[in-house]
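#struct-help
A.M.: can someone run this one for me? Single chain, 216 residues.
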Amino acid sequence: MESLISEDEIKNEIIRISKVLYDRQLINALGGNISGRVPGSNEFWITPSQVFKGALTVDDLVKMNLEGELIEGVYKPSMEWLFHAAIYKVRPDVNGIVHAHNPMVLGLTLAGKEIKTTITDEAVLLLRRIEKVPFKLPGTEVLAEEVAKAASTGARALILENHGVIGLGTNLLEAEAIVELLESIATIEFVSYALGQEPKEIPPDEIEVAKKYWGI
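D.P.: on it. Structure tokens below:
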């Protein structure tokens, strides 16, 4: 069955998201990485290494297969291609991956605070569960293995300790939404803590009603 999304659409989405995240200061000039693939494909497009993320073009993107072989592109792929490939291998439902360096999420996590998935209805629906990945050096096979292990649980949101976050989506828009929602929830929590209050969560019985309503 032919996919409803083309590679050109995927590449344009990667460029759009890169600019949005840069403008929102969720990635910096050379940080963060984004990839996407046609559903069911063993090849994916990913942002390049050491190229300004705020002004990428489709010609800057790199196409790879899941074994790390370069298919198309003139630049080196992101150093984090290993964990992108690892996620795609263990999660056939994932077709978009967004890795950012959310400052609020990292700040709260480093302070020992949990990012809660039960503060807003949107968080209950989209985040559902967050997996933490212990710190491993970026770009290494060890990190890729830890990320794959966390992703294999079915989680859509991963927090890399002392590093950043990863949003996993059935498409790139969903992955982007998860990364942005993580930062929004972290900001809400920060305001609550700054005012001396523990963030109030949605009552458990209401969460169960919501899950049944949404079928999750």
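A.M.: thanks! The two ends are 27 Å apart (CA to CA).
D.P.: also worth noting: The mean pLDDT is 95.
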